[in-house]
Amino acid sequence: MARTKSRTGDVSHVSLKFSAINGVLLAAGLAAIVGGYIMLADGSTVGAPLLLLLGYAVLIPLAIIL
Q1: Mean pLDDT per 10-residue interval, the chain, length 66 residues
Q2: 25, 16 contact by CB (below 8 A)
Q3: What residues does 3 pair with on adjacent strands?
Q4: What's the whole-model pTM score?
Q5: Under a CB-based contact definition with an 8 Å cutoff, are residues 49 and 36 in contact?
């Protein structure tokens, strides 16, 4: 758990709160990654990298930071 120190010197705990949108984005990211690897196994040279990029670089980070 992260701790932050305020100007007065107290240490407060910051908790991460995940909502339904985080779960949806995470599921979409995992689906894009799985779909990308499936397309990669089939030999797709355009769709697979796009899906993998979408999953790893866009959807998973959005699921974490939103």
Answers
A1: 59 77 96 97 95 97 92
A2: no
A3: 13
A4: 0.74
A5: yes
